[in-house]
Amino acid sequence: MALKEEVEQLKSVPLFADVSPAKLKLLAFTSDVVSFPAGRVLFNQGDLGDAAYVVLSGEVDVLINAGGEQIKVDTIGANSIVGEIAILCDVVRTATIKTTQPVTALRIRKEHFLKLLAEFPEMTIQIMRVLAERLNHTTSALTEARSQLRKAGQRA
Predict the structure, then answer these.
(1) How do beta strands 41-43 and 51-57 pair?
(2) Is the dihedral of CA 119, 129, 1, 40 positive or negative?
(3) Confidence (pTM)
(4) pLDDT tens across 50-61, in order?
């Protein structure tokens, strides 16, 4: 993928919508385009976070280990970011990300991502919104899964 195409793709990611083309070009230049086949794990829950991934094409499932079982809490498609929580909070990965189809992504290393946030405070606000939406969605999904497990346990 050409640098110009990467910049255009980054512009369509809501998180980067207000970042200048020059900064996006620098971000694209310092990042790596990576491809994964269907069924590949990008990273596992509990791994150390060293990068965030912008999904350029394809879809990934967000899986959470709960009680020894993997629960799918979301599917994320193109123009979305995954893996940012671990690098923002300096914690291990909070979920496993697995491709459901071939995926092309831009891998943004931790230091570049944090530098971009420092230079664009409005991006930090957008990240907070994304994280709040994900927390709400994940909480709802886990509550539903817990309810289903209880129902299944009562029938057994």
Answers:
(1) unpaired
(2) positive
(3) 0.80
(4) 999 999 999 999
